[in-house]
Design a protein that fits this description.
Blueprint: H1 3-23, H2 34-48, E1 58-59, E2 61-71, E3 74-84, E4 88-93, E5 98-102, E6 107-109, E7 112-113, E8 116-117, H3 124-127, E9 129-134, E10 140-144, H4 146-149, H5 154-167, H6 183-202, H7 210-217, E11 232-236
Antiparallel strand pairs: 1-8, 2-3, 3-9, 4-5, 4-10, 6-7, 10-11
Helix pairs in contact: 1-2, 5-6
Length: about 240
């Protein structure tokens, strides 16, 4: 992973944790502001990569922060999704193989996404998009780099998640009533299967891919998958015990 993306993610997480620890303890109506956190992370990364430690680079950014909203005095999960560029957050309901939500790619022009970093005019404050999505226990949240969404169609992503969760024991319970696989290990399996599927297409010069289709629509001659960074983070919405 390139330094700019590491630093953006590091500072972004710190800003979110700092605000939650300071604000939520003082107010039950606390609402996170992921775009402000990303803006602060961007500014800190600019400072960290400036002279005398100058380091050039760019990165897209997407993230999902789980919070809650009260409905009839009961807290229900609410997902804050932030995106800048052509990575993607997708929310899948495996029980009926439904896509509840996915981010929209941001491009200056074809294959030139909005980015944060050296010589880019984009900033979180001006260009990041934040949406709130109501989810429920059992929903899967995916954060995927463009190397995944350029090579896998939406239905292939959903099918892979569904198959992985079935294959590794999700939805079944042991005699004590607990899940056969814990959430962390199971979501790792989901992410690995998606990475594997995307890589298979990326390395196939004859595959049909979403990126190939968009290139053809732009009047470009291309076939096969697209070799690119392939990263997946998968999370399962679960109610905290106790």
């Amino acid at each position: 992973m390139e330094l700019w993306s590491r630093l953006i993610l590091h500072f972004w997480a710190l800003e979110a944790e700092r605000d939650a620890s300071v604000t939520s303890s003082a107010s039950s109506s606390f609402e996170p502001d992921p775009v402000a956190y990303l803006q602060a992370a961007y500014e800190q990364t600019l400072e960290a990569t400036s002279t005398p430690n100058e380091w050039k680079g760019t990165t897209t950014a997407c993230g999902a922060l789980l919070h809650h909203a009260y409905e009839a005095a009961t807290p229900e999960p609410l997902l804050y999704v932030t995106n800048l560029g052509d990575s993607q957050v997708m929310v899948v309901r495996p029980e009926n193989q439904e896509v509840l939500y996915k981010t929209t790619e941001q491009w200056h022009w074809f294959d030139c996404p909005r980015q944060l970093g050296t010589n880019s005019p984009d900033t979180p404050k001006a260009n990041a998009v934040m949406d709130k999505i109501k989810i429920k226990e059992g929903d899967v949240v995916l954060a995927m780099s463009d190397g995944v969404v350029d090579n896998l169609w939406e239905h292939e992503v959903v099918q892979s998640v569904h198959d992985s969760m079935g294959k590794f024991g999700y939805g079944r319970q042991d005699r004590a009533g607990g899940n056969i696989k814990d959430a962390e290990g199971g979501m790792l399996d989901v992410a690995k299967e998606l990475v594997k599927a995307a890589r298979n297409v990326a390395e196939d010069p004859y595959a049909e891919s979403p990126f190939m289709e968009r290139a053809v629509e732009e009047g470009l001659a291309m076939e096969g998958g697209k070799l690119d960074d392939i990263s997946v983070v998968a999370a399962l919405c679960r109610r905290r015990k106790g």
